[in-house]
Design goal:
Number of helices: 6
Order of helices and strands: HEHHEEHHH
Strand content: 5-15%
Structural class: mainly alpha
Distance between the termini: 38 Å
Number of strands: 3
Mean pLDDT: 89
Shape: elongated
Helix content: 55-70%
Largest sheet: 3 strands, antiparallel
Low-confidence stretches: none
Length: about 140
């Protein structure tokens, strides 16, 4: 997925999402996930992208100011977490793109034209679930 904020923001968000997903898989202890520190994010990015601590700090602060990351003071350092899951974020981007269109039907058509058969099947399944949910709510 192309990130509107830039490649570095995308790489940092990928680390925040990966930490959430890893924590969810390991979450049998009941302890809340407190997030990643700036140093942890920098260390995770280092093998493919060596960055200064201040660069990562700036990116995380920007993500926080944009409402894409939350932070909490743990000891003497902030830890950062994604506000929304990767899937929730993708859904929000799609909703924003759709709301910018003058012709929603045409936007849907153009979107579906670019989809693989696998993605069309997933979309059809999601629409079926949404329809069943609406039917259940109305009865």
């Amino acid at each position: 997925m192309r990130w509107p904020g830039g490649g570095l923001e995308s790489a940092v968000m990928e680390q925040l999402w990966a930490a959430e997903e890893t924590r969810a898989e390991e979450s049998h202890t009941g302890e809340p996930h407190v997030g990643l520190t700036v140093r942890q994010v920098r260390d995770l990015l280092a093998p493919s992208r060596p960055l200064a601590y201040t660069t990562v700090l700036t990116v995380l602060d920007n993500l926080y100011k944009k409402g894409l990351a939350r932070r909490a003071l743990v000891g003497r350092a902030y830890t950062y977490r994604a506000v929304a899951s990767r899937e929730e974020h993708a859904a929000e981007l799609m909703a924003q793109a759709l709301s910018a269109s003058a012709d929603r039907s045409l936007a849907f058509l153009r979107f579906v034209d670019r989809m693989s058969a696998e993605d069309i099947a997933a979309l059809r399944s999601a629409l079926d679930r949404a329809t069943r949910h609406l039917d259940e709510e109305s009865s």
